[in-house]
Write a structure and sequence with these properties.
Layout (H helix, E strand, L loop, with lengths): L1 E6 L5 H10 L4 E6 L11 H17 L4 E4 L2 H14 L4 E2 L5 H11 L4 E6 L1 H5 L1 H10 L5 E5 L2 H7 L6 H10 L8 E6 L8 H8 L4 E4 L1 H12 L6 H6 L5 E5 L2 E2 L3 H16 L7
Parallel strand pairs: 1-2, 1-3, 2-9, 3-4, 5-6, 5-7, 7-8
Antiparallel strand pairs: 9-10
């Protein structure tokens, strides 16, 4: 099966890396819409337009399923995608429900912080989700738009990133918060820095593995776990940037480093 992924930039590679490690024997396409990154501070109409254009391109390349590996694009445009095509379209949403369930199960009724782009946080899709799963009103929201630009520059462990996050998370502590939701695929690359700043008591939760499980379920594909996934031979991926085939060694090496960073963290959906 040929499966197409797209994102505004490199964030979705964190989801793709999880998918290629767990779903064997598929063909993979990834389109990073670098002409329009970042999405998170654009209008809903602009993002919806970019989303449909990315999907049309992947369909023209033979995609038999599409993963919108971007919370912002999902919030702004997934309804339009599902109206324009009959192939399965898998979106993403901040992992608020798992965070609420985890903290409920722990017996610690502390707060939950959802981080994302400004667009994701303002859209009705997230508000509706929180309304359904957070009856005790324990969820707080924090936009972190600067992380997208830092990720695109591969500045994951930089002093600039450390200073940005330290200031943004000044009021977040393990005394008050049980979990932090990484509601943007770009944010996953910064997990080590989040852990450094917040300590081990605040759990980090993202939606990547949940999205991969949903893809496998909808498309009827096998999914590997544990050692099987770790041993999975890494298949070839066809890379694009805003519909242009990527062939230069520098960009391909960059994408390779991003995959290695995600694999080095272990399961991206782990807590």
């Amino acid at each position: 099966m040929k499966i197409g992924f797209f994102d505004s930039g490199i964030g979705g590679i964190s989801v793709l890396t999880e998918a290629v490690s767990r779903i064997p024997d598929q063909e993979w396409l990834f389109d990073a819409d670098t002409d329009h990154v970042p999405y998170g501070e654009k209008t809903t109409a602009e993002i919806a337009h970019y989303t449909t254009e990315n999907a049309r391109f992947l369909l023209s390349e033979g995609a038999e399923a599409i993963v919108v590996a971007c919370n912002t694009a999902t919030a702004a445009g997934i309804r339009l995608l599902r109206e324009m095509t009959q192939v399965p379209v898998i979106g993403m949403e901040p992992a608020v429900k798992p965070a609420v369930e985890l903290t409920d199960a722990s017996g610690k009724k502390k707060r939950i912080l959802v981080t994302a782009t400004p667009v994701t946080l303002r859209e009705a899709k997230l508000k509706d989700l929180i309304g359904r799963v957070d009856p005790e009103h324990r969820v707080d929201l924090l936009p972190l738009p600067g992380l997208v630009t830092l990720a695109e520059r591969e500045a994951f462990d930089s002093q600039e990133a450390r200073s940005y996050l330290t200031e943004a998370l000044t009021d977040v502590s393990a005394d008050d918060y049980a979990a932090l939701v990484l509601g943007c695929t770009h944010f996953v690359y910064f997990k080590p820095l989040f852990r450094e700043i917040l300590g081990p008591e605040v759990r980090l939760i993202d939606g990547n593995i949940g999205t991969v499980r949903r893809l496998a379920d909808v498309c009827g594909l096998p999914i590997l776990k544990g050692p099987e996934a770790a041993a999975q031979e890494k298949p070839e991926i066809t890379w694009y940037q805003s519909g242009r085939r990527v062939t230069d060694a520098e960009t391909l090496a960059f994408y390779g480093r991003l995959q290695e960073r995600i694999r080095g963290m272990g399961e991206s959906g782990s807590l």
